[in-house]
Amino acid sequence: MTHEHQHDHEHGCGHEGSHEPLSCGRRRFCQAAIGGATAITIGTVVYPIVAFLKLPMRLGDSKPVEIPLDRLVAGQAYYADFQGQQVIVVMTEAGPKVFDAACTHLGCNVVWDTAHSNFHCPCHGAVFSGEGKVVSGPVSAPLREIAFEVKNGVLVIS
User: Are 36 and 69 part of one and the same domain?
Assistant: First the structure.
């Protein structure tokens, strides 16, 4: 074995039994490229899984919605985001009401109709009363009420 082949063999760059030594730089490049591709592949699989598993913790840590009662006007709707869903607060004669904005038919967001004091679903024409009860349309269930409390003149959804 020549001195050059012996040096390459000792450092893992030669290939025993071959007539021509492999390039040490090319081998290291290939190893680095394969290692990098493997790391990227593992990352693209693991990251979404970890992000998904952390999602419920982020949603559970969401802050309560606080709306001062003096900002609510009778007959008007106030829209807010609560734990990833849109809610609608309506001040009725009996006091505030909070509803999930999702129509119980197919989940489209309902819109408050101030002129008629009711909710209207723009997707399929469902109509709900100001109390969230079904008035008409292809829907059979009322709007889902969201629990809230009033503390020191502030409506709190938590």
Answer: no
Coil, helix or strand for 8? helix
Which residue range forms the structural domain that includes residue 8?
3-60
* pLDDT 10s digits, 62-73: 677 888 888 888
Predicted confidence (pLDDT) per residue in 21-34, tens digit: 557 788 889 999 99
Place of tokens 């008035």: 135
Tally of structural domains, the chain: 2
Backbone angles phi, psi at 50, to 5 degrees: -65, -45
Identify which of 90, 118, 115, 114 has the alpha carbon closest to the alpha carbon of residue 103.
118
Strand partners, 128: 119, 134
